[in-house]
UniProtKB/TrEMBL annotation:
<protein>
    <submittedName>
        <fullName>LacI family DNA-binding transcriptional regulator</fullName>
    </submittedName>
</protein>
<feature type="domain" description="HTH lacI-type">
    <location>
        <begin position="6"/>
        <end position="60"/>
    </location>
</feature>
<dbReference type="GO" id="GO:0003677">
    <property type="term" value="F:DNA binding"/>
</dbReference>
<dbReference type="InterPro" id="IPR000843">
    <property type="entry name" value="HTH_LacI"/>
</dbReference>
<feature type="compositionally biased region" description="Low complexity">
    <location>
        <begin position="343"/>
        <end position="352"/>
    </location>
</feature>
<feature type="region of interest" description="Disordered">
    <location>
        <begin position="329"/>
        <end position="352"/>
    </location>
</feature>
<dbReference type="InterPro" id="IPR028082">
    <property type="entry name" value="Peripla_BP_I"/>
</dbReference>
<keyword id="KW-0238">DNA-binding</keyword>
<dbReference type="InterPro" id="IPR010982">
    <property type="entry name" value="Lambda_DNA-bd_dom_sf"/>
</dbReference>
<keyword id="KW-0804">Transcription</keyword>
<dbReference type="Pfam" id="PF00356">
    <property type="entry name" value="LacI"/>
</dbReference>
<dbReference type="Pfam" id="PF13377">
    <property type="entry name" value="Peripla_BP_3"/>
</dbReference>
<keyword id="KW-0805">Transcription regulation</keyword>
<dbReference type="InterPro" id="IPR046335">
    <property type="entry name" value="LacI/GalR-like_sensor"/>
</dbReference>
Amino acid sequence: MARDTVTLRDVADAAGVSIATASRALTGKNRVSKATTAHVSRVAERLGYRVNVFGRALREGTDGAVGVIVPVISNPFYGQLVHSLEEQLREHSLELIIADSHGDVARERERLRMLVQRRVEGIVIVPSDASASLDAVAEAADDVPLVQLDRRVEEAPTDFVGVDNERGIALLVNHLGERGATEIVLVASDDTTSAGRERRAAFDREIARRGLPVLEPILDRFTLEFGLSAAGTIARSRPLPDAIVAGDDLIATGLITGLKRHGVVVPRDVMVTGFDGTMLADICDPALTTVVQPFDQIAAEAVRALLRRTKQRDAPAIYSRLAPALRESMSTARPLAPPDTPAPAGDDAQAS
């Protein structure tokens, strides 16, 4: 009998007791002898039945635990996302167990297995790799309810909640275009993550749609160090572009710092934008124009998806994209591009 199909009724029938007795034995309730408790527990273990503590937590207000795995907890984006998740879980009397995969697929697999072995009631994961994370994510999803957050493995048939990357990039490119930028370079993550893939594809579409020159992107990882390195590459390759779209606030912070070291002033010499809306946007100098993710809404949607999955394990997967918002600041504070006006014509124009 497959583990996920074993019900409390199956355990009760195999143990020769009522469903009520089986439930009391497996949940530690009173009025059940030690011998009966031991007998029912052995039968449940043999059948592969696992008590749904999560469901009991919802019914009785007791504590459950949800595991959250992120690639780099030191990234302010994930710190803010975890904070929002914790607040949402507390509203359901649920605790959060945080694990850091360090962006490494092998460590990610270890963290997933650890959480499954600890019998957490659900897992929320930001996958490290859009392809290589597939086996570990799918394996864990077979054991416990699992929601992919922010990034996803497309082939994994799980619930997903994230931001609308295409809309976010469109907001940025439109904003820069309004400020007269025609040469815009993308400095972002490579194709390792779904977020990197989606933001690059969205950028390419926006540039093509507007008929702007196609500049070679600079791609690596979502890190401050990469932003610093990319700044040197851009500063040495004169002439400068009009603007830089960074893949996230961390890269943008590195870019602004690195450009300043090379004597390039933002936004006078080049405009820079970020993506995420973290605290970094405020502490940058100049403050960063960025796309702000709706952290609380994303967290609430992820928890709702997880709760739904605990009740309906076979329900169709949820695929949810939430709209971001543009926050303008000093890193793009150039005057707006003047509207197109007809050129003066002939004597009448001179006379006027």
